[in-house]
């Protein structure tokens, strides 16, 4: 299997099995059963979600939306899936049953529009309250975090954040963290007994904080503008250290880390590098970069392969 040609005329061979997806797959989340993945599409050609069977490597569903941007999360009981509506200012609610998503509702987050028709909320990252009663939605253009009633769609609370809130992460201890890719901070909240939130403050982490992941080692934050990953001590509420993600011999900006995941054993951090076409692998305990998973084999426009390794 080969990818489409790059502008240079060469092709990159995938390092592992690939799955052909739709336009601009920007985010994915695992289904509660962990046998399927929900992929958010946010391209010009199409927006919405695709459901991928991880065993067969096949797309089993393709559900288009009039808008979509980054956010997707399952309810705690696994019966509902919430997906961002991007520039149309909607939160899409799907029923999830036996690996199939069915549209149930659309919650309106804002009715106002800018002069060019763009939304004024622009939901991005999404997380569900532990009790399932609320959905926490980063309103990217609105510079806010919205707390949405999962039953009625009403906005129960709104909190200001730094510029362009992006990712939302729920920690096991009942705290919620929101990155702001247009700023340099993470906003922190505490989940109250009824599922609403109390604002705790902001934590300075560095320029362009984007994707978030939480583990027992702390909060991991990709800093897409400086090729670093910040590891935040959530008890002390400050950055404990940085992982440096610049490519060898490259300037300090250019890898563009924009997504991350922690392996099930908690020992490895996987960081997607948007401009390296690679995934960096770090040892969580030592912070050492162990290597990059990428395909260096290329071939020109003709079928003959000129390099492969």
Question: What is the strand and helix layout of this fold?
Answer:
Elements: E1 11-12, E2 25-30, E3 36-42, E4 47-53, E5 58-64, E6 72-74, E7 80-84, E8 90-97, E9 100-108, E10 123-128, E11 134-139, E12 144-149, E13 155-160, E14 165-170, E15 175-180, E16 185-191, E17 197-204, E18 209-215, E19 218-223, E20 228-233, E21 238-244, E22 257-262, E23 268-273, E24 278-283, E25 289-293, E26 298-299
Antiparallel strand pairs: 1-26, 2-3, 3-4, 4-5, 6-7, 7-8, 8-9, 10-11, 11-12, 12-13, 14-15, 15-16, 16-17, 18-19, 19-20, 20-21, 22-23, 23-24, 24-25
Description:
The chain contains no helices and 26 strands. It has strands spanning 11-12, 25-30, 36-42, 47-53, 58-64, 72-74, 80-84, 90-97, 100-108, 123-128, 134-139, 144-149, 155-160, 165-170, 175-180, 185-191, 197-204, 209-215, 218-223, 228-233, 238-244, 257-262, 268-273, 278-283, 289-293, 298-299. Mean pLDDT is 89; it is low at 295-309. The radius of gyration is 19 Å and the shape is globular. The strands form seven sheets. The chain has a four-stranded antiparallel β-sheet with strand order 2-3-4-5, with no helix packed on it. The protein has a four-stranded antiparallel β-sheet with strand order 6-7-8-9, with no helix packed on it. Strands 10-11-12-13 form a four-stranded antiparallel β-sheet, with no helix packed on it. The chain is mainly β. It starts with 10 loop residues before the first strand and ends in a 10-residue tail after the last strand. 40% of the residues are buried.
